[in-house]
Amino acid sequence: MASVPDTIDDDEEDAPMQMSKGKRPDEEMDITPMIDITFLLLIFFVVASKMDPTQTGRTPTADAGLAVSAKDSAVIFVERGSEDAAILSRSDKSKFIDDEDAQTLEVIEYVQKELDDGKQQVMILGDYDVSVGEIGRVRKMVGDNFPDLDTTYIAVKEE
């Protein structure tokens, strides 16, 4: 019987070792999942957040400001009422109507009468515990209906 000698081919011994061809890393990273998550987070925060932050804040306390004469101003007092609704009253302490639409008309009449009587500006005087949204609502009433009015002052009573 002939036996096969165990010989190693010289060519195989000198050949470099070859690695298996695995997955090569791409030159660019795929950022599609990151963009998807970013948009999902953005949509979540837009839907979950309250879009009108002025309704929840409190009126800041006054540090210092200009001295404005109440004699030269149409004064509107804003006091805290039931829940978040505010009570509006004139400088003589008579109250405006509670219904918002009728209240707007009454405030417009009052400010127009005061301006016709020689007042030069409007002063909105709010209590410290009135929400910023209520002060803004009164300011909007005056600003929308009196575009020629030069100055509207907002004052805050100290605590």
UniProtKB/TrEMBL annotation:
TM helices/strands, residue ranges: 31-48
InterPro entries named in the record: ExbD
Topological relation to the membrane, as annotated: Single-pass membrane protein; Single-pass type II membrane protein
Gene Ontology molecular function terms on file: transmembrane transporter activity
Region (Disordered): 1-28
Superkingdom of this protein's organism: Bacteria
Any one of the GO CC terms: plasma membrane
Localization in the cell: Cell membrane
Family assignment from sequence similarity: Belongs to the ExbD/TolR family.
Name of the protein this chain belongs to: Biopolymer transport protein ExbD/TolR
Source organism of the structure: Roseimaritima multifibrata
